[in-house]
Amino acid sequence: MVKGHFIYDNLIISQHENVKHIFSQLISNLKPKRILEIGTADGGLTLMLRHILNENNLIDSIVKTYDIIEQKNLKNKNVHGIEIITKSPFNYPYSELEYPEEIKEFIQKKGITLVLCDGGYKINEFKLISPLLKVGDVIMAHDYAHDERSEEH
Fold this sequence. Notes:
5-stranded parallel β-sheet, 20% strand
């Protein structure tokens, strides 16, 4: 059974509770101009990323997030610097990007792009998006699943 979610600013965040510390370090070091997130889920991580950017004086950095489910709770937060897109950037069998120019244009802008693959098929998301990255960009396939062996200790 997967354990690893908590509430962040009234939104569910499906990650380990130490995720803010880890992403704070990453964003502080990387200083991305934009974050592309595939798989918004309930929007907790998206909002946290925006807050971490703000805490690092990266106010002009953009978070662009894609999910096939409309993100009403996140949209209701009406936070500057988050672009919420309700569609999949991939075709159904995840064999190609549905909107390759849209994704490429976003990633290829000047400055570092951080890409988070956390949608329905992380392996193919990573494979399809990674060729679009520039030198210095970072792509991650992320998720958190509690290790059953740690229950024994």
